[in-house]
Design goal:
Blueprint (H helix, E strand, L loop, with lengths): L1 H26 L5 H23 L12 H18 L4 H29 L4 H22 L6 H7 L1
Helix pairs in contact: 1-2, 1-4, 3-4
């Protein structure tokens, strides 16, 4: 169970990174340099926002500023406003749809990461781990005595 949670967290992290990169890649041809620079700044601020959001450190939530969901909402609203101001171009609509899909996937990953961060480690796993570490620490000095040299002195001090 713990390995599965770890893998799920890693997959969410890789997926977040991929989707953020894809948003930049897809929208680069359409945005003006000023708009694209703003988009880059928003995307660069996302890792710090998600970190403070998941760890509940200062800077998380609406009390301290923009959260990860708010940032993605800002990006999608700016994208929709930009596309509504331009002449209907099929390629632009396709790019907008892809970008909104990436934003949707980012929001799903944020929900999954919140679930992982809020779930407690199961008691059985915690007990099993503590018992294993206790036994391991008990037998470690006996294993280290076989190495000779200064090792018996170090084991005796420990």
């Amino acid at each position: 169970a713990a390995h599965e949670r770890c893998q799920l967290g890693l997959n969410c992290t890789y997926d977040l990174r991929h989707n953020l990169q894809q948003i930049l890649r897809v929208m680069r041809p359409w945005y003006t340099p000023r708009q694209f620079k703003r988009l880059q700044q928003q995307v660069r601020s996302f890792p710090q926002l998600i970190d403070s959001h998941l760890t509940a450190s200062p800077g998380a939530g609406f009390l301290y500023g923009v959260g990860p969901r708010d940032l993605m909402t800002q990006i999608s609203e700016e994208l929709c406003f930009y596309c509504s101001q331009r002449k209907s171009d099929l390629a632009l609509m396709y790019s907008m749809d892809r970008t909104l899909g990436h934003i949707n996937q980012i929001l799903k990953n944020v929900c999954t990461m919140e679930q992982l961060a809020s779930e407690a480690v199961p008691r059985d796993y915690s007990r099993h781990t503590s018992r294993f570490l206790t036994v391991w620490m008990f037998f470690l000095p006996f294993v280290l005595l076989d190495y000779g040299g200064f090792m018996p002195l170090v084991v005796g001090i420990v």
